[in-house]
Specification:
The protein is α+β, with helices and mostly antiparallel strands. It has two domains: 83 residues; 284 residues, paralog of FGE (formylglycine-generating enzyme). The protein is 33% helix and 10% strand. It has seven helices and nine strands; from the N terminus they run H-H-E-E-E-E-H-H-H-H-E-H-E-E-E-E. Strands 7-6-5-8 form a four-stranded mixed β-sheet. It has a three-stranded antiparallel β-sheet with strand order 1-4-9. The structure holds calcium ion (2 copies). One calcium ion binds next to loops. One calcium ion (CA) binds next to loops.
Length: 378
Amino acid sequence: MGDGDWQARRRDQVMKGTQYTGIIVAIIIGLLLVGGLIYRGSVESRRRAEEKRRELDRARIEEEAERRKAEVEEVAEEVAEEVAPAVSAVPAEPSIPIPTPPPIADAGCQSDPPHVIAQRGKVAPAGMVYVPKGPFIMGSQAAEGHHDETPPHRVCLSGFYIDKHEVTNAQFKEFTDATGYVTEAEKAAPASDRTWRHPSGPESNADDMPNHPVVCVSWNDANAYALWAGKRLPTEAEWEKAARGTDSRRYPWGNAAPTGTLTNIADKSIELAWSNASLNDNHRMTSPVGSFPAGKSPYGIEDMGGNVWEWCFDWWSGTYYQTGASNNPTGPENGEFKLIRGGSWFSGADGARAAQRMHFRPNGSSAAIGFRCVKDIG
Ligand SMILES: [Ca+2]
Ligand SMILES: [Ca+2]
């Protein structure tokens, strides 16, 4: 083979090589374009799926809120007249001016050292218990609680004092005697209706039950009492920490199911569809506060599970835990319902769970709802 032939073949090979390279590059570019399209498609479909999931979550939360609201209303209708909690709704016109509680200061998230906890415990106001500053986990896993309790999230709280017991008839009487305050139920009710003075109707009398929790008081009434007493209503975060401490327990006393010595809930002594017939707590309706010391919370606070639901400061929102503040949260700016916590003599065991959230109109009242107060340190 001559040099000329060899060079011609070499040129031919180079030409072909260039063509092949061109084809391969074109294939790679093609693949990249197709891959890019597929990737964009999958990102888009993931985004749509995520949107769909959020929509479904929102719908579920709303549906559950409606269902639970309907349950409360249904309960009020179904239960026999002699035990049905009275529900009243009148425009909020408190008898005494109600100032807005001061904003709660930034918490930081460092727990109190032991000597501070001991000191604050020693100087606690009468009838109150110190709940130390620091973080806790608020809320429930989806499998554990209702949608509005999810997700569990870390919340930092300042230290505060909280009443060891629910506010009693005797304490509420001191308030009305001193101020002439008239509750919303009293203003709205005909003579036969239930009021805090006659919690089970005209035949019953709060004077005969001085150590029972006051009931048939609206959120506005409870707030008025708290401010008169130099206290305030607990935020629901404060309430939940006081009830379950920092170990995410299910009930104030721990994770064990309720028994007759731990709490006053709907037991065999009251005939309701959801009564626990195997449980006997010996109380058909309210019990004197402090009747279940074995059911106290980690801080020694009593009746946080059962006896009466307790008004909290915050408005209720079914999605607040997904977006709310983690530092001394005080709930949404506004709403239709206020939180009530802890279950009552009228609730099944689920109501006594420390993370359970129920809600009620702020000007409404019930024979199953009372309250306790908190006080800031310093
Ligand atoms: Ca009971
Ligand atoms: Ca209670």
